[in-house]
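[Q] Does anyone have a clean structure-token version of this?
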Amino acid sequence: TSLSTPKKKKRDDGMREHVTGCARSEGYYKIDKKDKLKYLNNSRAFAEEPPADTQGMSIPAQPHASTRAGSERRSEQRRLLSSFTGSCDSDLLKFNQLKFRKKKLKFCKSHIHDWGLFAMEPIAADEMVIEYVGQNIRQVIADMREKRYEDEGIGSSYMFRVDHDTIIDATKCGNFARFINHSCNPNCYAKVITVESQKKIVIYSKQHINVNEEITYDYKFPIEDVKIPCLCGSENCRGTLN
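[A] Here you go.
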């Protein structure tokens, strides 16, 4: 059967009239360039049309839509940055930077002790190098694990105290930060920061660090009768870690 296709009707504004009453049921159809330009000109003129009666009114200049959107985004960024002015919030920003801009590091044999962590790119002073990752445990669990590690023949246990009650154990669950050796003249230092009510240990650079230079920090072990010898070899070496 041959059905006569109805002619395309146009509205007064130049747009095509939908025969079925629904644009989605008619599928895709092209619009002439002339009709498109006419529609865009009409919509632009309608948007920029000033009120009819402007007497006693001050009409501010309307910025372009893209310019207004860009200024709104910049103001939103300034608002977020201004909200992070506190020390804790500043640590949050730096911690986010550490997640998205990780330093290139490698671990290999160290002249100080066993394995060590080395920089594969220049690191400026006062930058976050790496987070000390591990399991958060209590002091009681730390004492039990320390004895168990000795029974299992694990010579070194990688435990880092956060506060009086919390210790990070990176012996069996950690990252490259556990390979950082002690030095009496270190190029980094450890700092405890709070991110979303959770304490984290992050290693900061104390000075400029060159490529292939070993990352070190002061363990700051408590003074004990049984001394642990220090092998850092620096000029002001204390001789012991504790």
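[Q] Thanks! Anything notable?
[A] The radius of gyration is 33 Å.
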